[in-house]
Amino acid sequence: MARVSGRRQRRGWTGWLWRLALLALLWLVAVATWIIWVGQRDQGRACRRDHRARRGGLRRAALTRVPERIRHGLDLYRRDYAPVLLFTGGYGGSRARFSESQVARRYALQQGIPESAILIESVSRTTRQNLLQARQLMQERDLHTAIVVSDPLHMARALRLCRELGIDAVGSPTPSTRFRTVQTQWPFLLQEVYFFHRDLVLRTP
Length: 205
Prior knowledge:
Layout: H1 2-39, H2 51-54, E1 60-64, H3 67-78, E2 84-87, H4 100-110, E3 118-120, H5 127-140, E4 145-150, H6 152-165, E5 169-173, H7 182-201
Parallel strand pairs: 1-2, 1-4, 2-3, 4-5
């Protein structure tokens, strides 16, 4: 009798472990699906400046930081979705001569964007730091809202951090991405799923 009872107990524990594993798998799939879904929504296209914005009653910045994002940010500016471009990103390494935001600013100027419409910060190294620096610049210049420009798979995390930091923002994912193949998209998606959970536990700078 004791042996039979022990077998039943082990089967019970095994059954519960399988159920927990299945729930964990479903949760991870749900998070990945949410990340993909957010990355396919372009809320920025619905944010064309209204008459209040033209009078300075509502000011908005387009936050962007790397080549694909720079081009998309410039497109939003030219289409009158935001009166200011805010480029974020510090130095990629100790030997870097220019920060990411400085490179973006130079490119924007070469494309005919007026210097008065460009803001940069050059100290951030992470997404959270990008947004903290952007928030400070926005507050200093009375910018009220932002259109966050980012890679589609990174958009969900960026917008969640904006909500956490109190930045009134919508997302406009880039129509093109450097992660074009399944081989490059899957590692990036898995990385974003990891950071989703890490951000829930840690408040890293």
